[in-house]
Write a structure and sequence with these properties.
Elements: H1 8-24, E1 28-34, H2 37-50, E2 55-58, E3 62-67, E4 72-78, H3 83-91, E5 98-102, H4 115-126, E6 135-140, E7 157-161, H5 166-184, H6 189-203, H7 208-218, H8 226-245, E8 247-250, H9 263-271, H10 273-277, E9 286-290, H11 297-308, E10 312-315, H12 317-322, H13 325-342, E11 345-349, H14 367-381, E12 386-392, H15 395-407, E13 413-416, H16 422-433, H17 440-449, H18 456-473, H19 479-498, H20 501-510, E14 512-513
Parallel strand pairs: 1-6, 1-7, 2-5, 5-6, 9-12, 9-13, 10-11, 11-12, 13-14
Antiparallel strand pairs: 2-3, 3-4, 8-10
Bound molecules: adenosine-5'-diphosphate (ADP) and magnesium ion.
The site of magnesium ion has 3 residues, from helix 11.
Length: 520
């Protein structure tokens, strides 16, 4: 029923530490990091019970002891806000016990932790003999690693229980679906296998506990409506991603939305199709698209998802940063781990320069630098197939850091996406107008000739506004109506085009053109 045995390594290592502590009659302490607390507690419990040792669970709220006979925890003393008190309680245990202490490490950290408690723990760990071999397990989220006091760094063991991978999620789904089908009286194994496979993509990126509840809720009302369950899980996952991690799954099922004129870029994707889905060092990591707004970069990210048949997950740096700063690093880490568990994906990072903004870097205690550092590290080290499509329209805002990023192999290629060439404009116009105007060929020619320096978005807006205007005035939708809207936009378009002159200069030196753009 439980998934404890999925982490034999963590379990074996913990058992080794327990026995070693007993052999040398010392206190050992270390960190068990996870996003999946319930699961981690299960792993610890089976290990400790298997080793026939006592298990305790301390928090600021309570001290409890596990009783195997009743299969539950029982109170064995009060909790405490004072870390020293909990540590003393652990020190006084006899008989080789294991104590799990949740969320205490922050109160011991170097920067603003409790110095006395830190020293107390240090002396507990350096005492030779005199104890029966107690093991203290600090149970924390992964980013707590940084809270280990430096004076204890060498003495601490480190264990981790990662987010569940695909196989684990599928096994978990199979278990739940079989249980549901059993209740209906027809535990059809084949059906359960088929649907656990189908539902797995909607459950990756969740912890084991969250995934278990999600699938139970999905089947709560109807235990055999699997298509309904899928829709429910999709919606639930979207909400979870957007509310907790500021990530969106972009709609990419519109076939007609292929950006036109970005042939080099599209060819690059097609050539690297297989390398993008690989795991490991040689996989294709991603592309950086530099260019003015409205030139089809977002469209391209979605098209990449379609081409590769992968979901496109938007990683919204700005939204993640705007959360209050202390939480930013934690949320970045959580977002990265979720993306790894969800891989393979296309990860769309719009306006990546936001991560490098110099604003506020002095008075936020360095959080900005640390999150930037984490992003850079993740971009180069993330081992799973998360193909990054990042964009920027402001290279100068990236500053020095951003420049190193563009050079240091974090992206396979940097493309410059400029305003469309006249032939690309003609293609766009033909596509948009073919069913709505007479003689589309000549309309597209005339309008594309008159719209040099227009972005795809400007052009699309002119066409849309002309269409509403024609409808409103109840006149024919023709070249004259469109040209009127084009003229209205022209000045603004020209000024905007000039404002990206320095970006174009940068691109000449550092980027490949995404398509064959006109010389203007
Ligand atoms: N190269 C293009 N091909 C076709 N349509 C385009 C192109 N560039 C822009 N558009 C139109 O403009 C809209 C906005 O483009 P978008 O991809 O959001 O630009 P960006 O992300 O570069 O700001 C698109 O939905 C599309 O209608
Ligand atoms: Mg965009």
């Amino acid at each position: 029923m439980m998934f404890n045995l999925n982490h034999p390594k963590t379990s074996q290592e913990l058992e080794r530490i327990i026995i070693s502590a007993i052999n040398s009659r010392v206190i050992r302490a270390g960190l068990l990091t996870t996003r999946d607390r319930d699961h981690a507690l299960n792993v610890v419990r089976t290990t400790v019970v298997g080793a026939k040792k006592d298990l305790y669970h301390f928090t600021v709220a309570s001290r409890r002891k596990w009783t195997q006979a009743q299969f539950k925890y029982e109170a064995c003393g009060g909790g405490s806000q004072d870390p020293s008190e909990l540590l003393r309680a652990a020190q006084n245990l006899r008989g080789g016990a294991v104590v799990v202490i949740e969320d205490l490490l922050a109160t011991l950290c170097d920067t603003n932790g409790d110095r006395n408690a830190r020293q107390q723990l240090s002396s507990m760990l350096s005492a030779e003999k005199g104890n029966d071999g107690t093991v203290i397990v600090f149970l924390e989220p992964p980013e707590a690693e940084g809270n280990i006091p430096s004076m204890l760094a060498g003495a601490f063991f480190r264990l981790n229980i990662p987010m569940p991978n695909r196989e684990e999620v599928e096994a978990l789904a199979l278990r739940e679906i079989l249980a549901a089908l059993t209740e209906t009286g027809s535990p059809n194994m084949e059906l359960a296998q088929e649907w656990s496979r189908e539902l797995t993509p909607e459950l990756t990126g969740l912890t084991r506990t969250a995934a278990t509840y999600a699938i139970r809720d999905a089947l709560a009302l109807n235990k055999t409506d699997f298509p309904g369950a899928r829709l429910y899980l999709q919606a639930r996952k979207q909400t979870h991603l957007s509310e907790e991690l500021a990530m969106n799954i972009l709609d990419n099922d519109r076939d007609d939305e292929l950006p036109l004129g970005l042939d080099n870029l599209y060819r690059h994707l097609q050539k690297n199709k297989d390398r993008i889905k690989e795991t490991g060092k040689d996989r294709a990591k991603g592309i950086l698209l530099i260019g003015p707004p409205g030139t089809g970069k977002t469209m391209l990210a979605k098209a990449a998802g379609r081409l590769l048949q992968l979901p496109v997950v938007e990683f919204r740096i700005g939204a993640l940063m705007n959360s209050y700063l202390g939480a930013t690093e934690r949320r970045f880490d959580q977002a990265f781990q979720t993306l790894e568990a969800m891989a393979p994906n296309v990860v769309f990072i719009d306006e990546i320069e936001k991560a490098f903004s110099q604003n506020g870097s002095e008075n936020d205690g360095g959080t900005m630098m640390r999150t930037t550092g984490r992003l850079l590290t993740w971009l180069s080290e993330n081992p799973n197939p998360n193909f990054i499509v990042a964009t920027s329209n402001n290279v100068s805002r990236m500053g020095e850091l951003g420049m190193t990023m563009t050079r240091s192999g974090r992206f396979d290629k940097i493309f410059f996406v400029d305003v469309p060439s006249s032939s690309a404009r003609k293609q766009m116009l033909t596509q948009w107008l073919k069913d709505v105007v007479a003689d589309v060929e000549s309309v597209a020619s005339v309008v594309s000739e008159a719209t040099s320096r227009f972005t795809g978005a400007d052009l699309k807006a002119a066409v849309n506004e002309a269409a509403s205007e024609a409808k409103y005035r109840q006149v024919e939708f023709n070249v004259d109506v469109i040209m009127k809207e084009v003229k209205k936009k022209d000045l603004r378009v020209q000024v905007l085009y000039e404002s990206f002159a320095s970006l174009r200069r940068f691109a000449e030196l550092h980027c490949e053109p995404a398509g064959s753009f006109d010389e203007i």
